[in-house]
Amino acid sequence: MTGIQIVAEQGAWRGGFEERLLAAYREAGCSEPLALALRERAVTGIDGWTLATDGTGWIAVEAAEDNGVVTGRIHDLTVPGGRAWAERWCAEQGARSVRVRLTGGAGAQPGTGAFADYPVRGQNRMRAVAERPVLPPGLTVRRLREEEYADWLAREEASYIADIVRAGALTPQQARQKSDRDFAEQLPQGYRTPGHAFYAMETGGVVIGTGWVNHGYLPGVTFGFSLEVHEEHRGRGHGRAAMAVGEWATRQGGDEALMFNVFGGNEVAMGLYDSTGFAVLDEFRSIDL
């Protein structure tokens, strides 16, 4: 493609880009404070992005090291056919893969159709919870005991690594390194990390799953890091029960909405979230160069 030039000044593009982000989050059902907070997260590092234009639209790209490998990112694409230029620019910076965040989910951002062949690596989803969530009959929820934390953590780490690898985002070694960093960052004080709560779900006195949530993660939002039904208890309708626990925990923490991440390749979970009304806030896709 010819006619695309890198520009140093972001002013003509940036305001419109940030407004499109806000509009996408509002359309997904976010409150204004939450939409603003999500936009701020989405534009982290924007001053360091490379901006290009052909006079009719924009391309915003970045190349940075991630898990020891240079990764390209396409932050905005409104130039028709501009994907080839963006990928070539990323490759010239030494990137071995390119990632894209589709704000508001597939179809909500200009250029989305250009990335239809990029495999889905993950999604952020959210829904306002019931004012008084009701737990399913026969299910009881209690706080995870501190002496249970070590076994819970080992299980969570193994599950997290498996999810990352299944999504095709990283190699097993890279996934383990990411897991170590992420758990250390999210739980610096382990079981006693402020704002975090851990639960055990029981039926008939048997623990069938666990939950891990972070209250006040964003304005009015509890983040569900994990609502996990143990493998030996799956296929019995407990998935919906776990979602009810997430809603209940959200209200316990004084929040109004539940947000969580689902990895690509987990079609069963995505189907459950579709059927329970959890909207896609962001969809993450990537492709190897």
Low-confidence stretches: none
Helix content: 25-40%
CATH structural class of the largest domain: Alpha Beta
Which range does the strand content fall in?
A: 25-35%
CATH topology of the largest domain: Aminopeptidase
| Shape descriptor | globular
Strand-and-helix sequence, N→C? EHHEEEHEEEHHEEEHEHE
Global mean pLDDT:
89
CATH architecture of the largest domain: 3-Layer(aba) Sandwich
Helices, by number, come to: 7
**Major sheet size, sense and barrel closure:** 12 strands, mixed
SS elements, strand count: 12
CATH homology group of the largest domain = Gcn5-related N-acetyltransferase (GNAT)
SS-derived structural category: alpha+beta
Major sheet: order of its strands? 1-2-3-4-5-12-6-11-10-9-8-7
Distance between the ends = 18 Å
Number of domains: 2
